[in-house]
Amino acid sequence: MDTTPNSAIELDEPQRTAPAPPATEPPLTEPKGCLYALSQPPLMLFLAVIALLLAITGAHDLIFL
C-alpha cells in the first residue's frame, strides 16, 4: 500500500488554523443624538437670540400696530 498523501484528498480537507483572537471592542457608549446637540452652549445662545428677536417683534406688533 502506498503511504504518500494524495494531493486531491489534501485539497478537499478544510484547513485547520488556530482561532483568531477576539477583537478588542470599544466600550459601549450611547449614541449622541438631538438632545446632545441642543445641550451645546453656542447653539443655545443662537436659539436664545432668535427667540428674543421673535419676542421683540411680536410685542412690537401687538403694542404699536
Please state the overall shape, judged from the principal axes of the Cα atoms. rod-shaped
Helix content: 40-55%
Gyration radius from CA atoms, angstroms: 35 Å
Helix and strand element order? HHH
Give an overview in words.
With 65 residues, the chain is mostly helical. It is built from 3 helices and no strands. It has a domain at 31-65. The protein has helices at residues 7-12, 34-38, 41-64. It is rod-shaped and about 105 Å long. Keywords: Membrane, Transmembrane, Transmembrane helix.
Describe this structure in a few short sentences.
Residues 1-30 are annotated as: Disordered. The chain is an all-alpha fold and 65 residues long. Helix content is 54%, strand content 0%.
From the structure above, extract its key features.
65 residues; mainly alpha; transmembrane helix; transmembrane; 54% helix; 3 helices; rod-shaped; single chain
Explain the layout of strands and helices.
Elements: H1 7-12, H2 34-38, H3 41-64
